[in-house]
Design the sequence.
């Protein structure tokens, strides 16, 4: 099993989710994060003072899938989340040691 | 009850409610501007005044401010504990029942110290503030109200201040300066950047302040008449002009007009018109709003040049706005608008400027001195400032064992 993490622009989440669901991915976790890469922050003004905000809001998603589905999931995320502008994000893939479904106790690929 | 006028009484009671509403409004205005870990403690600095000042006002504050004058300095204890109030009428508002006047003035006594909290937000302990608040209310606010409105020496000297620039705004600014000097800067000041955590809250607070200010200025006519209507209208014009003035300057100077700027500009205009509302015409009200809005925009940048940490710009807005408002009152006041007022510079009486400046110095200076001394005493006894760890994890937790926003 593979865990695929992606940091994407928040407004791309719906497209990514739709694409993954169409591929047969049955579960996904998403959370709001902030971060920066080579995308620079922005300037905000409070009562005449300028502040540079380094962090940019992002969304991080995680999916755990069978080994053979993983490459297609990676490609799907990249395709759906790309806007072509700086700050599109990154995709990382890791090995998963074990997976358990809490409700039934199933282990391994059946739990995914 | 002789001569009680129903119109005057209803407007005064309604105005009292409007002014009271300004204190939770102020709490939200300030609350939105601090970091989320301190929002409740910031709100509480204002809210607690509603409790503490009210009771002290009943016990002693009212009589010290508006009791029969003793030597131009203080009021006699005839109304201590609010005895002799029911069924009576005050010479300062002869057409309303005294309880209405007591209630109205109480609301000003409440909001005045609450304004100071913007200066020391995010670091003063609740306990220290309650002590400071109680002493300040009786030792600064009540005497000041007496000096300007209760037959005291500033009134005798010819200072005119329709709704309390000196009594409320300049005293708060003087106290704010004392606070920033004694309590010092927030942890990380200069290295860290602090951002408002909830600007919608601040904008809501600003709206409530604007709304309540109609009672603050309009009710200061202490009657339901043309002066009240004029003050109401002048208040509105100045708020609008102040907002626009700030936004124009901000867009030119910093690049964008901001919502915080709109709120701040409106408040600046309102501060500026406070002494003048019942003494000037609509054109002057707009002019005052325009000037004070711009002046306060630059006023808030004073702190970065001078290096003190006035967290929420009490000096930049109530200080600079207060001084400007008094000066402009000295310029624009005219008996053509209010026969019970005075003429200012443009109406041929430059002497009024002098009186207004005396009022400014007396209010700011007296409040500064008393506050400074009291703060030093508190600092040496129970302590003034939250511990560094408490400041880091937030005063909501250290002072009130609460968290404002729990996600779940």
Sequence:
């Amino acid at each position: 099993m593979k865990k695929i993490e992606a940091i994407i622009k928040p407004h791309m989440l719906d497209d990514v989710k739709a694409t993954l669901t169409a591929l047969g991915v049955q579960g996904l976790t998403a959370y709001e994060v902030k971060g920066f890469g080579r995308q620079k922050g922005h300037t905000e003004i409070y009562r005449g003072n300028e502040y540079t905000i380094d962090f940019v809001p992002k969304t991080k998603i995680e999916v755990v899938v069978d080994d053979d589905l993983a490459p297609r999931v990676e490609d799907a995320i990249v395709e759906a989340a790309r806007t072509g502008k700086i700050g599109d994000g990154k995709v990382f893939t890791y090995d998963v040691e074990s997976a358990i479904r809490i409700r039934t106790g199933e282990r391994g690929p059946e739990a995914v | 009850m002789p001569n009680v006028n129903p119109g005057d009484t209803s407007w005064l009671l309604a105005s009292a409610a409007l002014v009271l509403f300004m204190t939770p409004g102020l709490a939200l205005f300030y609350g939105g501007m601090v970091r989320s870990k301190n929002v409740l403690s910031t709100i509480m600095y204002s809210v607690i005044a509603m409790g503490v000042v009210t009771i002290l006002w009943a016990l002693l504050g009212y009589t010290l401010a508006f009791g029969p004058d003793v030597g131009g300095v203080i009021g006699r204890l005839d109304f201590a504990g609010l005895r002799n109030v029911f069924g009576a009428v005050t010479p300062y508002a002869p057409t309303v029942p005294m309880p209405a006047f007591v209630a109205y003035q109480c609301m000003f006594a409440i909001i005045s110290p609450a304004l100071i909290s913007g200066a020391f937000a995010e670091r003063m302990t609740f306990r220290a503030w309650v002590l400071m608040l109680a002493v300040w209310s009786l030792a600064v606010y009540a005497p000041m109200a007496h000096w300007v409105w209760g037959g005291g020496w500033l009134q005798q000297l010819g200072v005119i201040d329709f709704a309390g620039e000196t009594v409320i705004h300049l005293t708060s600014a003087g106290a704010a300066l004392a606070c920033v000097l004694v309590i010092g800067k927030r942890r990380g000041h200069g290295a860290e950047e602090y951002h408002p955590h909830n600007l919608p809250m601040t904008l809501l607070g600003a709206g409530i302040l604007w709304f309540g200010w109609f009672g603050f200025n309009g009710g200061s006519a202490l009657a339901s008449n043309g002066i009240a209507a004029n003050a109401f209208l002048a208040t509105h014009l100045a708020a609008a002009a102040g907002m626009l003035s700030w936004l124009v300057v901000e867009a030119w100077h910093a690049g964008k007009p901001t919502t915080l700027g709109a709120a701040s500009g409106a408040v600046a205009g309102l501060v500026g018109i406070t002494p003048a509302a019942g003494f000037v015409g609509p054109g002057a009200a707009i002019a005052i709003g325009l000037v004070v809005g711009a002046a306060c925009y630059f006023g808030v940048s004073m702190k970065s040049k001078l290096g003190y940490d006035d967290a929420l710009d009490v000096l930049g807005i109530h200080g600079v706005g207060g001084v400007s408002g008094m000066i402009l009152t000295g310029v624009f006041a005219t008996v053509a608008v209010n026969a019970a007022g005075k003429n200012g510079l443009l109406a041929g009486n430059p002497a009024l400027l002098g009186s207004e400046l005396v009022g400014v110095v007396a209010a700011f200076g007296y409040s500064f001195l008393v506050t400074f001394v009291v703060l030093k005493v508190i600092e040496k006894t129970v302590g003034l400032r939250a511990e560094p760890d408490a400041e880091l994890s937030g005063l909501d937790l250290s002072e009130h064992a609460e968290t404002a926003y729990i996600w779940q």
